[in-house]
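Section 3.1: Structural characterization of target chains.
Under the original work plan, the team committed to producing a structural model for every single-chain target entering the pipeline before any wet-lab resources were allocated. The record below documents one such target. The sequence was received from the expression subgroup and is listed exactly as submitted; it comprises 286 residues.
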Amino acid sequence: IGRGSFGEVYKGINKITGEVVAIKVLDLDTDDEDITDVQTEISFLSKCDSEYITRYRGSYLSGTKLWVIMDYASVGSIRKILKSGIIEEKYISVIIREVLHALTYLHKSCGIIHRDIKAANILLTGDGCVKLCDFGVAGQISMTCLRRNSFVGTPYWMAPEVIQRSSYDFKADIWSLGITIIEMATGNPPFANEDPRRAIFLIPRTKPAKLEGKYSVSLKEFLGLCLREEPDDRPTAEELLKTKFIKSSSKGTSILMDLITRHENWKLTKNDESDDELIKFEDEEV
């Protein structure tokens, strides 16, 4: 059902319970000790339980392939939804609110920095609930590869301090959340037309991006808070939940059913789910 930075994702069924799950198959080209560390991490993550995240259910090892069992979200990612058009502010505020709840839980209760916030890692369930995925394990593996292979994947959502290899903390996720707002509102993150190497050069050397035009003052102010250059100046996820932009969002997530319906109707007009209107971000070494 998809391909992530470090493996493929399949839809599976628990033969005992009949429950539908997602299975991420990671090809770990690494030694036994690293694999053991990852499995220990999964064991820890399986105890992280929040309605705002996709829960890890456990793992199985076959050679160097690690099968990670996770919750399944039938609609797919917000990145997928973007294929049928950009997302209006009234929907963005609800999605971001739910992601902030997820980040508050991960940061405060689990001590986890997500490291890879972007629309592709925000999932929608069939009833319109928002789930943040790919935390912990994927982040740990990506950081291992980051140290080993310079950059793997795409840097467009990365905070300047991450690119500069400075010490960084939970505030890196807040920057990436801001970039994700721009992605949802415009279809792509800043510098999407640039080569990843060029983006790596530009992000720490360019003033933070802004949304111009039709957007509300409260959204622009919220984005400005997320994209403050100094990490210490960015609010926490918990603090951002108290902003006007979030406080004025629609209650619950039922409004997101409109997005799901729009996407389903769009699919009926297409023979396939092509990425014609989106830049396709392929995983690559930089």
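Residues 89-110 form the longest helix (22 residues).
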